[in-house]
Structures are given as C-alpha cells and as structure tokens.
Amino acid sequence: MPASTDVLVVGAGPAGSSAAAWAAASGRSVLLADSAVFPRDKTCGDGLTPRAVAELDLLGLGDWVRARSISKGLRMCGWGKSAELQWPKGSFPGVGSAVPRTELDDRIRLNAVERGAVMAQGAKAVSVETTDNRVTSVTFKTAEGLRTVNCRTLVVADGVKSTLGKQLGREWHQDLPYAVAARAYIKSGRSDDPFITGHMEIKDPAGGFVPGYGWIFPLGNGEVNVGLGSISTKKRPARVALHPLLEQYAEEQRKEWDFVGEVRALRSALLPMAGSVSDFAGKNWACIGDAAACINPLNGEGIDYGLEGGRLLAAMLDEPDLTQAWPNELRTHYGSAFSIGRRVVALGTQPGVFRVGGPLALRSRRFLNVLLRTMGNLITDEDKDLVARMWRTAGRVSMRLDQRPPFS
Ligand SMILES: Cc1cc2nc3c(=O)[nH]c(=O)nc-3n(C[C@H](O)[C@H](O)[C@H](O)COP(=O)(O)OP(=O)(O)OC[C@H]3O[C@@H](n4cnc5c(N)ncnc54)[C@H](O)[C@@H]3O)c2cc1C
Prior knowledge:
This protein is α/β, with parallel strands linked by helices. It is built from eleven helices and 20 strands. The strands form five sheets. Strands 1, 2, 7, 8, 9, 10 and 20 form a seven-stranded mixed sheet that branches. Strands 5-4-13-16-17-12-18 form a seven-stranded mixed sheet, with helices on both faces. Strands 3-6 form a two-stranded antiparallel ribbon. The protein is globular and about 60 Å long. The protein binds flavin-adenine dinucleotide (FAD).
C-alpha cells in the first residue's frame, strides 16, 4: 500500500469503485481499499434498471453488462393478474439487466484499476485521523499488520453499516423509513426470461397479507435471484420472518418459474433509504452509496445511485469544503424523488393500502406505466411531459413539507 495518495477510497462496491474509476481518470493518484478479497458476494437482488445501465455505459461497461443478461422491462404481478411493462422511452437506455454481485462488483473494481487506481484487498479500515473535520490519514488492518495511508481526500464507500462513516460522525436516522430484504439463488428453466418480475401480493404462512414485495430477477446463467423485501418505519416496524417467508415464496413460484432444487445462499440485510443520514461529509471527506443512504425507497435500488454518486463526487474533488457542498449536491439530484418516495412507502405500511390499492393499480396499464417510470426514478430534468412536470412539482412540495429533508 502506498504511504500517501491524492484520493483514498474505502470500500470497492459499486459506489467506491465508480469514485475510484472517475478520480483515476482525472489523473489523480487513487488507492481503492476493501476489507474483502474479490470476487466477493454482497446480499442484493442484482437488478439493474436502465438508470444503472446508463451509468455502466459511461464507465465503458455497456457491452459487458448487455452480454450478461438483458431485461426489456418489468412484469408486475398480484391478485391473479400480471402486466408486462417495457422500460420507458426517454433519457435512459431501453434495457435493464441483472448480474450477480460477485461478478458485477469485480468487473467495476477492475475498471477502476484499468483507469489507474491502485487496489488493496484484504485491507480493513480500522481508524481515521482528523484535524478540524479534515481527514489526514486512515489506518488499515492487513495481513502484514497495520498500515497508515495519508490522503488529500477520503471517499467513504463502506456500505450500509459504514463503520468508518460512524467514526467520522455520520448518523443514520432509523426513525425514517428503511427496508429489510432477503435474497437467494435458485436454478430455473426461465433464467433467460426477458422481464424482471415483481410481486405485490405477499402472504404469510397463515394467509395474512404482508406489506412487502417479492422479486424474481433472471440472471441468464441458469439461475434467478429470488427475494423479498418489507418496509419498516418507527411506527410500523417490519415484523416479518424473511427467511421462511422467502422459502415459501420460492415454493409458490416453483412451477411457474420451473425451479430446480433448493434455494441457495439465502441472506438478508438492511437497506438505508432516501438520504436518511446527516453529518456524512466533512472538509475533505464524504460518504457515498449506502453509507449516504442513497437507495431509492420506491424500488430498493442502490447500485445506480452508488455509481452515480461516485461519479458526482469525483467531479467535486477540487471543492475546498465538502461539508455542505456534498449534501447539497445529493439533494439537488435526488432530494425531491427521495422525499416523495419516503411519503409513498410510509403510506404503503398503513394497513389496507397495498391490499386495496394493489388490485386497483393492476387494472390500469396506463397507471402501471406511470408507476414504473416514477418508481424507477426514470424521469430527468429534460423530460417535459405532464407526468414529469407533476412529479417534479410534487417533489418540490414534498421537500418543503419535510421536517428533515433528504441528506440533512
Ligand atoms: C436484499 C437486498 C436486495 C437488493 N437489491 C437491489 C437490486 O436489485 N438493485 C439495486 O440496485 N440495489 C439493490 N440493493 C441495494 C444495493 O445492494 C446497495 O445499495 C449497493 O450494494 C450499495 O453499494 P455500495 O458500494 O454503497 O456498498 P457495498 O456494495 O455494500 O460495498 C461496500 C464495500 O465496503 C467494504 N467495506 C466495508 N467496511 C470496510 C472497512 N472498514 N474497510 C474496508 N472495506 C470495507 C465491503 O467489503 C464492501 O465491499 C439491495 C440490497 C439488499 C440488502
């Protein structure tokens, strides 16, 4: 490991590797360090919407991801109905994908190395030195003992727990909505299905309705990623035993999806959502990805926001003070969408909302197309149609009503 570097990135998930790739491409010296040795797994649905594919295109990984698997859109199911919706036409590419994180994360971190970043694997950041909210060095535990690295800028991309972020003062507000989710892999005769699938009607073993969602994401490699998520708020914590529920869900889907054998690698994790963090940046350091709660509350996606966050932060490395500049940047890009998202998911935890609203939603294809576009945050400032204008206005109003707007 070098003794000093311009940019030190801790965590080589999508967020950290993207930051490292863009920072290295700008000619800076970059050290990308991760406690794991790659390829490593990450509990995830592995789903990539067009927003994530757009970001992989920018990194030059567009052909690579399209060669793994391609989705044409989302199939929404529930209450005996199903609707196949194509990804909306607009500013993003018309394809999505799904790639196991063992492969995806390894490819993105290699991209950073190809652009000049130095990678240290098996290097766990254990402590950080600061002076006046400015990071001077980070100490790593490695197989060779402790190593200290001085840096000009520190990028904290250490995921949901963000132990390094916590040491620097980052606070995650768990009174705001977050999700708990589980995923597993299973062999399927429909591993090449061209739609990712979401189920809105999830029942517990006693037949009771569970406010949550199920997914099946074809991986094109003989397997699918099957998972379940549930939203949790302080008022209505998710009291769901996810593992048995996921096994039950997989059994229910076995015939339709031509499942073979048992689920494997069943794991669950938390999803910090919608910018529900504060104090996550200092003079020369900033949290990105899950460490900055950059997950869309309406669909649980975080890979794309991690990739985008890495690129956005790399463009701000000359900023003299990131303490306010970085949260402001994230609020500008995601504030309004995340603010509405929080309200919608909090509403979804109210008893009866899913049960009554779900079947109604599935009746109207036009409504479902709007839902797909808004839930996936597939609207940009360039989109001028009525839905886009209404979405932006709703976002601005929602942020004004927030007691704690996203990223504050
Ligand atoms: C069940 C589930 C399903 C999901 N499904 C989807 C989906 O389908 N699509 C989607 O877009 N998102 C999904 N997400 C969210 C997505 O997984 C995350 O948003 C995404 O992984 C965030 O990337 P990241 O780079 O911020 O963090 P991570 O991918 O978690 O990477 C953090 C890295 O930091 C390293 N690290 C941690 N601590 C240290 C340390 N002290 N020192 C050095 N290294 C350290 C870790 O080893 C890890 O490699 C899902 C999440 C869950 C839990």
